[in-house]
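Sample entry (64 residues):
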Amino acid sequence: MSVLKGEPGAYFDTVLLNAGIGIYTSRKTDSIQAGIELARESILSGSALERLERLVSFSEKIPV
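Predicted structure, serialized as tokens:
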């Protein structure tokens, strides 16, 4: 959770790189660097954490 709260460090950097490459390969940006910046904005704005919380909430409602 520290990564999704924007706490700097090696884990944060690794997640940014991984997400940036994923964003780039899905053709959402023109470069890996732009993908990294998009990922950084998503994390620092709280959007990434909010999406995770919504996914968890949704999955808890699925009957098993």
